Amino acid sequence: MKIRQQFVSNSSSSNFCIFGIETTTDVIKTLFPHAFDTKIMVGCNHKFDRTTQKFCGECGQSAYKECQGNVHTFANSLMDGCIAKPGYYDEYFIGIDVQSKPLTKELQQNLEAFDTLIEQKFGQRCCFLIKE
Ligand SMILES: [Zn+2]
After folding, report:
1. What is the domain extent for residue 45?
2. Total count of domains within the chain
3. Which of 4, 71, 91, 123 could be stapled to 87 by a disulfide with Cβ–Cβ 3.0 to 4.6 Å?
4. CA of 34 to the centre of ligand 1 (A)
């Protein structure tokens, strides 16, 4: 993982370019205790009595399913349009995907706002994370 401090032109060899931070599961769990919570959700949208029937009569899905509260949901809750990609081991990259986005004034403003948000939450500034 190459870490750059400034905007670079997208090279075709890079397949990953986000403006954000690299962090770990432990840090996320400490700062956001519910980021990895398991959620119970309905298995399908059909209507039936889920207190007595384990499976849907129409489509056969379980009445309820367990969903791991994943880090994508967590990242999206930080700011619209940001992503988190699991890296090796327990590393996560939280930021805004700038791989194919033109650097408009709007994007620049979003990056600045995101940087401020990340600094408030994680105590570190964002940088450009590029994987080549
Ligand atoms: Zn169903």
Report:
1. 2-131
2. 1
3. 91
4. 29
Distance 113 CA to ligand 1 centre (A): 42
Q: Which residues contact 23 (CB under 8 A, 6 or more apart)?
A: 91, 92, 93, 94, 122
**For residue 91, how far is its CA from the centre of ligand 1 (angstroms)?**
37
Q: Which pLDDT score is estimated for 37?
A: 75
Give the Å distance between the CA of 43 and the centre of ligand 1.
Answer: 7
Residues 6+ apart with CB under 8 A from 24: 90, 91, 92
Q: What is the pLDDT of residue 1?
A: 58
Minimum mean pLDDT range among 29-43, 44-58, 82-96: 82-96
